[in-house]
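Structure first, sequence second, as always.
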């Protein structure tokens, strides 16, 4: 009976080791940041080539209520035939007080913009790592050569929280100036041109107290 019992226990251990959590035999974590975007819209009235009286203040208050800041994308949806640069500049002035620039194009939003108004769109992205923490797969015993189920949760959750502009996790930043040798060499030039420490002599110090 002993050999039979040992075989049954071994088979049971193998079956338990294969269940619970996703089997991942690679070094890449199955838990990756997921970026989602929410668009907030406000239709503001216009008058001629500018915002209607009081609309700039209403727009500013709306920005404050949303807590607009770095990482948010602001765009103007002007559905007139040619658009008006004066209206766009007025919205850009309100956005500039918060250190933000206007995007070149606005995302598609639901609903029609009434005549005599433009739509201001604030796009905000968030990043989360779904399913973390994940302790569905035990670290030991490991009989499938798989990483533990929580592998990657700490690193990727921290990365998702630290990145100010969540869309950088999707497409990154354009390498503006990376091909310019002068831009790339600024840090090196600054380091080389800096006078060495102690070039003007050592600073005189004394341990004597003042009388």
């Amino acid at each position: 009976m002993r050999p039979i019992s040992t075989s049954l226990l071994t088979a049971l251990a193998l079956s338990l080791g294969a269940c619970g959590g996703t089997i991942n035999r690679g070094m890449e974590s199955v838990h990756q940041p997921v970026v989602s975007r929410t668009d907030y819209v406000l239709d503001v009235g216009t008058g001629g080539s500018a915002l209607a009286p009081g609309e700039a203040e209403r727009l500013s208050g709306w920005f404050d209520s949303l807590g607009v800041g770095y990482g948010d994308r602001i765009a103007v949806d002007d559905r007139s035939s040619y658009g008006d640069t004066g209206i766009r500049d007025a919205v850009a002035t309100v956005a500039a007080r918060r250190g933000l620039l206007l995007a070149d194009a606005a995302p598609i939003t639901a609903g029609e913009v009434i005549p005599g108004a433009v739509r201001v769109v604030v796009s905000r992205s968030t990043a989360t790592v779904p399913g973390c923490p994940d302790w569905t797969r035990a670290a030991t015993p490991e009989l499938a050569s798989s990483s533990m189920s929580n592998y990657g949760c700490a690193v990727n959750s921290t990365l998702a929280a630290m990145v100010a502009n969540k869309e950088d996790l999707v497409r990154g930043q354009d390498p503006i100036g990376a091909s310019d040798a002068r831009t790339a060499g600024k840090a090196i030039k600054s380091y080389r041109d800096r006078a060495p420490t102690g070039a003007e002599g050592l600073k005189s110090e004394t341990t004597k107290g003042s009388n």
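Margin note: The two ends are 96 Å apart (CA to CA).
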